[in-house]
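Researcher: Structure for this, please.
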Amino acid sequence: MHRKLLAAGFVAAALVLAGCSSSSDEAATDATAAASEAPAEEAPAEEAPAEEAPAEAAPALTTDDSNCAAPESFCIGLVTDTGKVDDKSFNQSAWEGAQEAANVTGGFAKYIETTDPKDYLNNIGQFTAKGYDVIVTVGFLMGEASIEAAKANPTTNFVGVDQFQGEAIPNLTGLVFPEDKAGYAAGYLAGLMTKTNKLGAVLGTDTVPPVKLFGEGYKAGVLAANPEAEVTIVYHEPNNAFNDPEWGAAEAKKQLAQGADIIFGAGGNTGNGALIEIAKAPGAGESIFCIGVDTDQFFTVPQAQKCLLTSAEKKLVQGTSDLVIAAKEGAFPGGNFFGNTGLAPYHNTEAVVPDDVKSQVDAVIAGLADGSIETGVTLG
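Model: Predicted structure, token format:
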């Protein structure tokens, strides 16, 4: 019996959940429409990563989700964490991965934006009620809702972005990353580049493990490269931690006033606020620099291009796409799937970074990848 026929018994319960949600189906956007509305500067054709542009011609996309329960369909739903789908960070990257997978498989992709954490399950329920094949839930804070929904809907595959799975559930895969390694590489670069020996970081809440791994990895990398350096790290309070650009800007301004010449911004719109503020500083791009996070923020936060040294990347687009495609192919892994990390290109600051610094950073990245270099970061 096809798994979508098995799913019929779960639809009625999911419909009850869907009726309670504060985010309606009208908030969802199909992959074709979203792709046509994306700002041009966010994905220049000449510099887009290879995995974001499938080489072969894509199958034709379906146009709606009215037949998602049909065996021949392949429907992908994405529920954002609080914040918009175009947050220039992990919501947006996960959505781009879902769209890429829809193009590769000839499937259909739709998103729902969460405005209140209490709506996580209800928003997921809008997709399970219609028989979606794969549901991507974005962010550590959605972990419990993802587990509950996966157990209640065993014929639906779930991708939990930034959600480490302590207990393996066959239809739920946590897309996780060694953020400490990406942070360490960025910190090592900053430690070599600083002139004031004062470095900063403006981050989301440290109650979210990936954020703390970024921050502590960054600090460890700075000190490994430059033991004389001072590193100031500030974390936002848990409430509204990823959507407070004003706080991010204010904290970055404080660190600049204290002599920091390179500042790491990580935490959705909160971190973006810091990056944009640093780009306004005298000497931005010459003696003052910023470092982005999650994706190559040269494209996603163009206001920060002037100061952007690099970005500590999690290959979120690739990881999300790979898992959704695996689900389509019947090879969904369950448990945890470790995605790749790295540093984005230097772009406008290419000429500012000395060749010997580039070589040292490349060696550190290689060492982190093969295990010969350890960050020493733990959360215990």
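Researcher: Any notable elements?
Model: Confidence is low (pLDDT under 50) at residues 5-62. The first helix runs from residue 3 to 6.
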